[in-house]
Amino acid sequence: MKEIVVISGKGGCGKTSVTAGLAHLAANDIVLADADVDAADMHLLMAPDNSKEEAFYSGKLAVVEQEKCIRCRICINHCHFDAISIEDAELKINPIECEGCGLCTHICPHDALHMETQRAGMLYEANARQNMPMVHARLDIGADNSGKLVTEVKNRSREVAEREGRDIILTDGPPGIGCPVIAALSGVSLAVVVTEPTMSGWHDMKRVNDLLKKMEIPAMLVMNKAGLNPELTRKIEKFAAENGLGYTKEFPYDPVFSKAVSEGITVPETGREDLTALFKETWQDILKSLK
Question: Are 104 and 45 found together in one domain?
Answer without folding.
Answer: no
